[in-house]
Design a protein that fits this description.
The protein is mostly helical and about 280 residues long. Helix content is about 60%, strand content about 10%. Pfam families: SMC_ScpB.
Length: about 280
């Protein structure tokens, strides 16, 4: 009697479960991908969780799987992680071609003064404008206003001190522009520089506001209100007016010089004997 091969009629439940799990994960990643593309901005883990109708832990895992997929592909797009947010961005290798179409990159051009101010805020945040000026040794109104305009810094609260000065910190745009995922990824400062910055901030808190470092508490970001936005807007508008007035003065001075030269030339021609 010949031997017959045994045919298993029991379904491969383990394989089916694995396949269902793989399909479920891919659907989650597709939803995250669609969300990032549709919004066109950075998206928080909370928003991803809402989209997937699940908890933050599951949403985080889905976003990370999608980010790793894009990282492995190394094609035209990447998923960038910015602190606890995710954003779909162009791959750096595509920049040359994109710039040819756009004509010029839409990037703010920062002066040395603005870069210096931004560096101080990045390493000492949250910090007031007065503290920045203490460290730099000069007024910094214009530099701070320009950084706010560029979206590289923002107001995050107010110092609990006389006058309640605004506190500034870097934004998500700052992380994106400088290619870091978190403030922890910023280059470490030399120990003596870091110590000097802390000393300057501490002295300004004492001299300017009569506060010890542990007494400097900021109000919650949600309590800032419209008054704060109006103040930043007024300062920005004032700086813009000053620039326009300066340009107008230069034009008037140039016209005056040209007019004076023309009058002098006419007088010289009038006095010269006719030939």
């Amino acid at each position: 009697m010949g031997e017959y091969e045994q045919i298993s009629l029991v379904p491969d439940l383990g394989g089916e479960i694995e396949e269902e799990d793989r399909i479920r994960k891919r659907e989650e990643e597709n939803l995250v991908e669609s969300l990032l593309f549709s919004l066109g901005r950075s998206v928080s883990v909370e928003e991803i969780a809402t989209c997937l109708n699940m908890g933050k832990d599951g949403a985080f895992l889905a976003a990370e799987r999608l980010r790793e997929r894009y990282e492995e592909r190394q094609e035209g797009l990447l998923i960038k992680k910015l602190e606890d947010r995710y954003q779909m961005v162009s791959h750096p290798k595509t920049y040359e071609g994109l710039i040819r179409v756009v004509k010029r990159p839409q990037k703010p051009v920062l002066s040395d003064v603005a870069l210096e101010t931004l560096s101080i805020i990045a390493y000492c945040q949250p910090i007031t404008k007065v503290e920045v000026e203490r460290i730099r040794g000069v007024k910094s109104d214009h530099a701070v206003n320009r950084l706010v305009e560029f979206g590289l810094i923002e107001e995050v609260g107010r110092l609990e001190a006389p006058g309640r000065p605004m506190l500034f910190a870097t934004t998500e745009e700052f992380l994106y522009r400088f290619g870091v995922n978190s403030l922890k990824d910023l280059p470490a400062l030399p120990e003596e520089v870091e110590k000097l910055l802390k000393e300057e901030v501490t002295e300004e808190l004492k001299d300017g506001f009569g506060l010890e470092p542990d007494e400097a508490e900021a109000t919650d970001e949600n309590t800032v209100g419209e008054e704060t936005k109006e103040t930043v807007g007024e300062e920005t508008e004032e700086a813009a007016r000053e620039e326009i007035e300066e340009e107008q003065r230069e034009v008037l001075e140039e016209d005056l010089r040209n007019s004076t030269e023309e009058e002098a030339e006419e007088e010289a021609n009038a006095e010269s004997p006719e030939t």
